[in-house]
Amino acid sequence: MFRFLLSVVLCALLPSAWGDTVWLNNGDRLSGRIQLLDGGKLLIETAYAGSVTLDWKQVASLDSAQTLLIQRADGRRVQTRGLQRAAAGRVALHEVPARPLALREIRQILPPRPLVEDWIWSGRIDLALEYEKAAKDVEDFELDFKTSARHALWRHNLTGGFEREFKNGVKSADNVGGEYALDRFLDEHWFWQGKFEYQRDRVDALALQRTLGSGPGYQFWDDSLGAFSLATLLNRHDFAFAAGGKEHLYALGVKWDYNRHLFGKRVELFSHGELGAPFDHVIDYKLETALGLRYRLNSWAALQLKGEWDQLRSELGDVDEARYTFGVGVGW
């Protein structure tokens, strides 16, 4: 009851940015901004309680002035300029208020993302610590970050990471790296990407790696539920070795970036990586990839379980490394 009274008072005080209203079967209502409906969970952002997740079966009706994409149970999609409250268990679309739609027929609701929009900045920082006391004492520290900023037809992507590991008090890993990629969208899906990547290792024989690449990409989707993109790049790799000497080679790479929110954004599945095939008969291919899950604790913090794999196939020998980390991260 207190929550209901609070929502009524704040509804009168809040600006139109929080103008969506959700009525529940028990008579309560919440005011805020509808973020998405997926997997039977409705996510609404409020000014007084942050993000609130509701069971779709407990929703009686809705009202919104947002433009929304609605997917029906039969798979059809419709875009509406708003929703209007109707009888319990139904909602009316702005275009056809006389023909309310049953809530049970709605599977998904998403606010659309226009191709040209003002600055949008998102990102996250993940931290993982590991300590293992066995035949070898292992202490490992890993920090990763990823951020993206989009303005009009341009998207800036910046990723980076740092790792330091000790085994029995001896440093076994000490590396830092980062990548900057700039995307120029040609239409809603196609874009052209240019990237620069830098990796510095203070332990391994390969001390320095620099990569310049450019090529076309395709954005399959990018909405409130996640995103998926592929890019095909022509890369030039420059290497410097700790013992002295330098090498370079050219390669064709396929790069992907995928994430998908599930259960009302409570869980996130993600994967990113790059598969490269050098124009060199000595090396067959090189694969760097990561796959993981995040469990959201609140609107900004999440637990993360991640696996990373590095593979190299060549005439001089193969590399097949895997590592698994568990940590916590913050996102915005």
From TrEMBL:
Cleaved signal peptide residues: 1-19
Keywords: Signal
InterPro entries referenced in this protein's UniProt entry, alphabetically: DUF481
Source organism, top-level taxon: Bacteria
Full protein name: Salt-induced outer membrane protein YdiY
Organism: Geopseudomonas guangdongensis
Lineage: Bacteria, Pseudomonadati, Pseudomonadota, Gammaproteobacteria, Pseudomonadales
